[in-house]
Design goal:
alpha+beta, Diaminopimelate Epimerase, Chain A, domain 1, 2 domains, 18-stranded mixed beta sheet, 7 helices, 18 strands, 23% helix
C-alpha cells in the first residue's frame, strides 16, 4: 500500500520568499527507514532535509523532538538553518513558543517571539570549542586567493558549536566577493586539520545594518546561509573583540548567489571565553506537499 508523508518547504533566514536557505521538513517521518530518508534527501536535492519522529507531547516538550538531518551526501549531526526551520514548523503546528530538537549533538532549544510582525526564532547552540590556529599562507593557497586578501589583524582559527569551521577574515568585501575557491583544494587542506569547512568573513558589508558579510563554500557549490557556522563566527568575533559580548549583530550571506540571507547572532563571554551562543532569524513557508512512496 502507498504511504503518504506531508512535508513543508521553507526559506530559512529570509524575510521574503525565494531568498535565504531552502529546507524541506517532514514533521512526521515515522515509518521511514535510513535508506528512504537518504533517498528523499537526494530527491529534494536541497542542502538539507529534516525528518521528525514525534513521541508524544510530554516527551517532545521535555526531551525535544527527535530529529534527523540529511544532506544529499549523508546524515549530519547538526546544521543551523535546518534546526531553525524545523523548529519553526513545529512551533506553528503546536502553538508552542519554545521548541527543542533532539539532534545527534544533543538538545537544541529554539525560542520564538514576534518581531516586525512575524515569528522570529532564536536557537541556543552548544558552547563553542576553539581549536587550532591556521597558517594564513596555506589557507590563502587552499582558497586560491592572494595572501594579501586576508586580514592579518585577526587569526584564522577553528571554532565549533557542533560542526568545526575555520573562520577566515578578509580585508575587504571586494576581496571576499571575488573569491572562487576550488572544492578539491579546500578539501586537501582541511583533511589535515581539525576543521571540516572554511567560513569566510568581511567586516565590510552590503547592508549598512549588517556587521559581517559571510560566504561558505563546499565541494558542491556555495551555501546561502550557514547557521552552524554563524555561531562559531560570532564566538570568534567576541573572542577577538570585533563584537561586544551579548551584542546581537546581523550577519549577511548568500548575496553573491542571489539568495540573500539575514542571520542574527550573539555570544556572551565568561573568563575570556565565548559562551551562550545564540543564532536567530525568520522563516518563510513557500511550498506544502505530500510525498507518496
Amino acid at each position: 500500500m502507498a504511504r503518504v508523508f506531508p512535508f513543508v518547504w521553507l526559506d530559512v533566514f529570509a524575510t521574503r520568499p525565494l531568498e535565504g536557505n531552502q529546507l524541506a521538513v517532514f514533521p512526521d517521518a515515522r515509518g521511514l527507514s535510513d535508506d528512504e530518508m537518504q533517498a528523499i534527501a537526494r530527491e529534494t536535492h536541497l542542502s538539507e532535509t529534516t525528518f521528525v519522529f514525534p513521541e508524544g507531547d510530554e516527551i517532545d516538550r521535555r526531551q525535544g523532538f527527535k530529529t534527523r538531518i540529511f544532506a544529499v551526501a549523508g546524515e549530519m549531526p547538526f546544521a543551523g538553518h535546518p534546526t531553525l526551520g524545523t523548529a519553526s514548523v513545529l512551533s506553528t503546528r503546536k502553538g508552542w513558543p519554545e521548541v527543542a530538537l533532539r539532534l545527534k549533538v544533543g538538545r537544541i532549544p529554539v525560542t520564538f517571539s514576534e518581531r516586525e510582525g512575524r515569528p522570529f526564532g532564536e536557537m541556543v547552540q552548544n558552547d563553542p570549542k576553539v581549536g587550532q590556529t591556521h597558517d594564513p599562507a596555506m589557507v590563502a593557497r587552499a582558497l586560491g586567493t592572494p595572501p594579501g586578501d586576508l586580514d592579518p589583524a585577526y587569526p584564522i582559527q577553528t571554532v565549533s558549536t557542533g560542526v568545526p569551521f575555520a573562520i577566515v577574515p578578509f580585508r575587504s568585501l571586494r576581496a571576499l566577493s571575488r573569491t572562487r575557491p576550488s572544492g578539491s583544494a579546500m578539501e586537501d587542506y582541511l583533511r589535515g586539520t581539525d576543521a571540516s569547512f572554511f567560513y569566510l568573513l568581511s567586516r565590510e558589508t552590503v547592508d549598512p545594518g549588517a556587521k559581517l558579510h559571510a560566504r561558505m563554500f563546499f565541494a558542491g557549490g556555495e551555501d546561502p546561509a550557514t547557521g552552524s557556522a554563524v555561531g562559531p563566527a560570532i564566538a570568534w568575533s567576541v573572542l577577538h573583540g570585533l563584537v561586544r559580548p551579548d551584542e546581537r549583530v546581523l550577519v549577511e550571506q548568500g548575496v553573491e548567489i542571489q539568495r540573500t540571507s539575514r542571520m542574527f547572532a550573539a555570544a556572551g563571554q565568561e573568563n575570556g571565553a565565548p559562551v551562550r551562543v545564540r543564532v536567530g532569524g525568520y522563516c518563510v513557508s513557500v511550498i506544502e506537499g505530500r510525498l507518496t512512496l
